[in-house]
Design brief:
Layout (H helix, E strand, L loop, with lengths): L7 H4 L10 H12 L2 E3 L14 E2 L6 E2 L5 E3 L6 E7 L10 E6 L26 H22 L8
Antiparallel strand pairs: 1-4, 2-3, 5-6
């Protein structure tokens, strides 16, 4: 991938090469169609930390390994570079990304009361007050029987 202005929203400014070849254009097309960013070309590093493969002649360096991430989460990758020190008898270099995941915790809305509203002024009426006391006493009596406690009216 190159540094063409057309591709900058998807690939950034820090590519190793100046112009894109056919495979680079394909990666950009895939990333654009799937709403992805190519993060391996967005971090400013020296060129020796950008290329991921050296040809067997030792003179040609290429940047052929890329990390793509969804645009909504692209800020999760803090840094990305290649390391030449990993000796695995290959001409490819280790690509390492520093990744930070944010966990979003949704705040629960206050619970709404879906039942009927109470008119507390009606408790001042004598008949309503007596009915209410009987209903509440019966409810607590049922609970007390479940718990095995016999004293319903505690002072």
């Amino acid at each position: 991938m190159g540094r063409e202005n057309v591709f900058k929203p998807t690939i950034g400014n820090e590519s190793l090469h100046q112009t894109s070849n056919d495979n680079g254009v394909r990666i950009v097309n895939i990333a654009t169609s799937k709403n992805l960013n190519v993060k391996s070309t967005m971090f400013p590093h020296r060129n020796i930390h950008k290329y991921t493969r050296t040809s067997p002649d030792g003179k040609t360096h290429n940047h052929i390994h890329h990390i793509l991430i969804d645009r909504r989460r692209h800020t999760s990758i803090r840094d990305l570079r290649s390391f030449r020190g990993a000796d695995c008898d290959t001409d490819y270099y280790l690509v390492v990304a520093k990744f930070r995941e944010r966990i979003y915790v949704r705040k629960q809305a206050a619970q709404k009361f879906d039942g009927e509203t109470f008119n507390l002024r009606k408790l001042n009426e004598l008949g309503v007050k007596d009915k209410y006391q009987i209903v509440i006493t019966n409810r607590f009596a049922a609970l007390v029987l479940l718990n095995g406690d016999e004293n319903v009216n505690r002072a």
